[in-house]
Amino acid sequence: MKASPSKSPSLSMLRELIGRQAALVLLPAIFAASFALAQAGADKRRSGYQDMGAALQKMQDDDTANPGMLFVQLGQQLWSKPAGAANKACDDCHSVADMKGVSVRYPVMAKDGDKPIDLEGRIRLCRTANQQAEPFAPESRDLLSLMAFVANQSRGLPITPSDDPQLTPFREQGATIWGRRQGQLNLSCAMCHDDNAGKKLAGVTIPEAHPTAYPIYRLEWQALGSLKRRLRNCLVGVRAEAYPYEASEYVALEVFLMDRAKGMIFESPGVRP
């Protein structure tokens, strides 16, 4: 009995087979893209940049128009300038490349210390301990310029706060301060920046208060300023007594706020109204 010849696959069968194989190859990429879109859609947090008008956004985006970049340039000069009895410059110990990613992970636990230290504290400590120079005054031009120069190296990176378990009690302390009513107005940070963010107050949009752009240049100040200065402004705004400048409460708040902004894009030096 003669065997019947095997049938060749039809064009439609080949198309179906190729389609299935292509789907198997592309499926992981499709799932990954869908997941990324879902994550992006789920994250409703807004930087203060998104609440500004187009003119201010353009000012921040253009390095030739952003007044904060003047401080970055001064910070770059200070970075290479020897100082103190040790006659050392920052770049004698650190390369600029080493600074990439630094600002997005501070505050961190201080070495041989039991408390966290913010970027400002780190710069001031290097100034006194390593350069053996007089400490920078709080909110001084030189201190803010070095902060701006270091922070600018992390522009465009996601905020990635340290997961050191030693920071947990300080993060919790910051969260407590954030949610606690204070001052003669009996308001908490959360009441404005969580509960009423996006609404108008005296014609100005209430921001979510994420620390994505510090140090920032505020038109109200006509100068660059630190997150600590902004926190002090808020305390005065609710008619509360501001903590002393060196108070640990500011660092605890920053630990909490950086964790709250985890994954958001860092944009220093920012511009704000």
Write the layout of secondary structure elements.
Blueprint: H1 11-42, H2 54-61, H3 68-79, E1 108-109, E2 116-117, H4 119-130, H5 141-152, H6 168-179, H7 189-193, E3 200-201, E4 204-205, E5 216-218, E6 223-225, H8 227-237, H9 248-260, E7 270-272
Parallel strand pairs: 5-7
Antiparallel strand pairs: 1-2, 3-4, 5-6
Helix pairs in contact: 3-5, 4-5, 6-9
Describe this structure as you would to a colleague.
The protein is mainly alpha-helical and 273 residues long. The protein has a single domain, classed as Cytochrome Bc1 Complex, Chain D, domain 2. It has nine helices and seven strands. The strands form three sheets. A three-stranded mixed β-sheet has the order 6-5-7. It has a two-stranded antiparallel ribbon with strand order 1-2. Strands 3-4 form a two-stranded antiparallel sheet. Helix 4 crosses helix 5. The protein is globular and about 50 Å long. It starts with 10 loop residues before the first helix and ends with a strand. The N terminus is likely disordered.
Neighbour order of strands in the largest sheet: 6-5-7
User: In percent, how helical is the residue content?
Assistant: 40-55%
The assigned structural class equals: mainly alpha
Number of separate strands: 7
Rg (CA only) = 25 Å
CATH fold-type name = Cytochrome Bc1 Complex, Chain D, domain 2
What's the domain count? 1
Provide the residue-averaged pLDDT: 88
**Count of alpha and pi helical runs:** 9
SS strand fraction: 5-15%
Low-pLDDT parts are 1-9, 22-39
Secondary-structure element sequence?
Answer: HHHEEHHHHEEEEHHE
Q: Which CATH class?
A: Mainly Alpha
CATH-scheme architecture: Orthogonal Bundle
Kindly report the name of the CATH homologous superfamily.
Answer: Cytochrome c-like domain
The main sheet comes to: 3 strands, mixed
Give the terminus-to-terminus CA distance: 93 Å
Taken from the alpha-carbon principal axes, the silhouette is globular
